[in-house]
Design goal:
heterodimer, B: 153 residues, alpha+beta, 4 helices
Chain lengths: 121, 153
């Protein structure tokens, strides 16, 4: 079926991100709707909440940078006490999000995420 | 924000603050209004309640026809504002939430905080028996009384 191909591709791309050490899950979300497009998450992570809140954050960051006369961010690292949320906006208002532990390999996660969003069609 | 039952006010206010929704209507499945936020005229509330209850009834009948589980929510996406309708069970019977929101928020945020509000409502709802279904001959009087209370006139 032609309609299933993009979902398989998205799943494979998410799998690549979740293979990075310390990544607890990754999602593709819609920045406009705040809804999950595809996800690969460990138990205990509420993908719906992550999608809604990260989409809101990305929209506000976009507005803030535009108001400051800057380009919208191409990568966001939100550091928390027990881990981080990474977000990389792609085309068509899709955002790739990863939830990572404090000891995650952030450099590799960033590189892989930027590569993955570049491959999204 | 006005609520006919005081225990509804706190969860609804939290939802308003978190979701940035423009208009909210909580009602029973028969269209009896429980609380509202953002409406300025009682006729708007009456119309929205009747239409919202009818849409939910239609979608629930549609899901029955399709032998599918009830739809969680119905979302109408608009260019300037959108509308979400969602029915949910409470200890006081089945209620409907009608939420109108704009581009300052998203359907994901609205659904997330709506579900949290429903959980809070279920937790704080008095455990007394739900009121009996309203009879058709009392409906108009009950509706007018609740609208007067909601709009304070």
């Amino acid at each position: 079926m032609a309609g299933t191909a993009p979902m398989i591709a998205a799943d494979e791309l998410l799998e690549r991100v979740t293979q990075v050490p310390g990544v607890r899950g990754s999602l593709l979300i819609s920045a406009i709707d705040g809804l999950v497009v595809a996800e690969r998450l460990m138990d205990g992570i509420d993908g719906r909440a992550v999608a809604a809140l990260v989409a809101s954050l990305m929209q506000r960051l976009g507005r803030a940078t535009t108001a400051a006369g800057l380009e919208p961010p191409n990568f966001v690292h939100l550091k928390g006490g027990s881990g981080s949320v990474l977000a990389a906006p792609g085309r068509d208002d899709v955002v790739l999000v990863a939830v990572v532990t404090p000891d995650a390999n952030l450099g590799r996660a960033r590189l892989d995420m930027l590569d993955v969003v570049g491959r999204l069609t | 924000m006005r609520a006919l039952e005081p225990w509804v006010a706190a969860p609804l206010q939290t939802f308003i603050n978190e979701s940035a929704a423009r208009l909210i209507l909580l009602m029973t499945t028969s269209g009896q209004v429980v609380a509202q936020h953002g409406f300025s005229r009682s006729v708007e509330v009456m119309t929205a309640a009747a239409l919202g209850a009818a849409i939910v009834a239609s979608t629930e009948e549609l899901s029955r026809t399709m032998a599918a589980p009830r739809f969680g929510a119905v979302v109408h996406n608009g260019s300037r504002q959108s509308c979400m309708l969602s029915a949910f069970a409470t200890p006081r019977g089945r209620w409907i939430g009608l939420v109108v929101f704009g581009s300052e928020t998203s359907v994901g945020l609205v659904q997330l905080f709506f579900d949290q509000m429903v959980e809070e409502l279920v937790m704080v709802a008095p455990k007394e028996q739900a009121p009996a279904p309203m009879l058709a001959e009392n409906f108009e009087d009950e509706l007018n009384t609740s609208l007067k209370e909601l709009f304070g006139r």
